[in-house]
Structure formats: C-alpha cells, structure tokens
Design brief:
Length: about 300
C-alpha cells in the first residue's frame, strides 16, 4: 500500500541511526517512523481500506506471526521483526510504501502534526508505562523529559499517579510543572520520596543508576531506550529489596491501538515544534543539541 505523507515525527532513534550509534540494516535508507499519510494506492489482497483513508505508520513494520513470541502476543520480540526507518524506508519522504496490516487508525479529532509523535514517542512510552504496573495513588519518576516523557506524564496523571520529573533542561522542568508534576529536579537531585516505579528516557546508563537509587523496595525501573552508552557499575543495594530493572523493546499493535484510543479519551495534547521536510537535518541537529521543547515534527505535505 502506498501512502502520501503529510507529517512525520522526528525521534531520537532517527538521530542514532543517522549518526551511527545504531548500525544500519541496509543502505540507502529513508529515516522516520512516526508518519501520518493518506492511502493513495493499494495492492492485491488489501481490504477494509479506501483511497484517502488517513493512517499512521509506527516503528513496527512487520512480524512473522508464527514464532513463539508472536504466538504468545509478543510480536514486539519477533526475531524476524522489521522496523520502519531501519529495515524499510520511513516517513522522511513525500510517499511511503507500507504493509497494510501494520498501519494504525488515528483519532479523528487530532491534526496530522499533533498525532505524529504519538506513533512512537507515545506508543513506546505507553508500553513502558504499562510495564510499571502502576495504578492510582502510586509514585512514578520520569528521568528525562522530552517527547516521550511529556506524553507519558499525561497518561500517568490521567491514571491518578503522582509524577516526579528529573531533567537537565530548565524548559523541560517548567513544562513538567505545567503538566502537573508533583516535583521537578535537575540531574543528580533525588525525589523527596521513594518511587514505586521509574522510567528512564535518556540514552545514558548513568541516568538508569540514578533512577534505581530513587526506587522504593519492590519498585521497577523501565529503560525506555533502544541504545544506551553503557550502564556503569553500581552498588548491589540499589537493586536489592526486590527492585527490578527492565528494558522496553518496540511495541505490539495491541499497545498501539490501546494507546491511541486512550489518547483520544484523555485527550493527550503534545507540545510540538514543526519544520519543513527540507529542514530535516536541522531538526535532527536541534534534537542532538537538546534544544527541542516537546516533540519535533516534519511537515511534509497538505493534510487534506
């Protein structure tokens, strides 16, 4: 199926692929895995979709459907899984060819530029949130407060959790306060109370250790990153007390559908900064410099 792209979110994973932190699976490659587009052509065997339908394209581009992981509902762990902007050309383009089964229906009320960041930053963040197992009244720490974290914060606040935010950026800390964080602090500062769970977003192992140090006994630290610079040695008491350390890998289509439905109900409002497609390199440079407030989105073409 071919989509005409109107918007595509800019993710730190795109930057890590462009800069070589993640090895390319093929070359040449078009980055981008948070694309919004409209159906322009369909191939044989595609049903239930019509020309002009608006769809989202996320990180998960395909899974085999038959391996043990897929059979138990963990298609995010499929050893033959493929990924948009890594195995298949992504959305930094005017058009994109995608597998119809892995496209996502989008909330009708959200504009293209606003919904684009939900397709990775939102969905992956939501999976990380799910892995914490938290409910109303719990204390959640967010370490790093960029695109994904500012969306997770809205989910957690909607669920009745108190959110504690650690971020190196003053603007990010101010944004966390606007979104209702119970506490905000800078690098090296510890929340005033032990946390039931933490999610780390920075590609830094040092931040993972800081998050572990903030956990209460029985707490969980979920690492929301596809690439880390390495985790430094840390004293065992930070993990003792049945604290847990877990990564989050990719997402399932069930995650995506559940999150997009929830995003429409809350409703989640992403803070976005838009750039034209021709300025993709400059957008990535701003992301690398930590100069982005909220989510970066490339405006590719007309939205209707």
């Amino acid at each position: 199926m071919r989509l005409r792209i109107s918007a595509c979110g800019v993710c730190r994973t795109d930057l890590q692929l462009v800069e070589g932190d993640l090895a390319l699976h093929r070359r040449p490659l078009v980055p981008g895995h948070q694309a919004v587009g409209r159906v322009e052509a369909v191939g044989p065997g595609v049903s239930g979709l019509a020309l002009g339908d608006r769809l989202g394209v996320g990180w998960l581009a395909g899974a085999c459907g038959g391996c043990p992981a897929c059979r138990r509902g963990a298609e995010n762990l499929c050893p033959r899984g493929t990924f948009t902007g890594w195995d298949r050309d992504g959305g930094y383009a005017t058009h994109q060819v995608v597998a119809a089964d892995f496209t996502l229906p989008l909330p009708a009320a959200m504009a293209d530029e606003a919904v684009a960041p939900l397709l990775c930053a939102g969905i992956i963040g939501f999976r990380a949130w799910r892995l914490t197992g938290l409910s109303a009244g719990a204390r959640l720490g967010l370490f790093g407060f960029g695109s994904s974290a500012h969306l997770v914060c809205q989910v957690a606040r909607h669920a009745g959790c108190a959110v504690y935010v650690s971020s190196r950026g003053a603007a990010a800390r101010a944004r966390a306060e606007r979104l209702g964080a119970a506490w905000v602090g800078g690098p090296g500062e510890q929340p005033p109370v032990p946390l039931d769970a933490a999610i780390t977003f920075a590609p830094s192992g040092r931040v993972v250790v800081e998050a572990l140090a903030a956990l209460d006994r029985g707490g969980i630290c979920v690492v929301n990153a596809i690439h880390l610079d390495g985790v430094p040695a840390f004293p065992y008491p930070l993990l003792y007390g049945e604290r847990r350390l877990q990564s989050v890998a990719n997402y399932t289509r069930d995650d995506a559908r559940a999150f997009l439905a929830l995003a429409a109900r809350i409703p989640i409002v992403p803070e976005i900064e838009t750039h034209p497609l021709a300025a993709a390199n400059q957008a990535l440079q701003r992301l690398r410099a930590g100069a982005v407030e909220g989510s970066l989105v490339l405006s590719v073409g007309p939205s209707s």
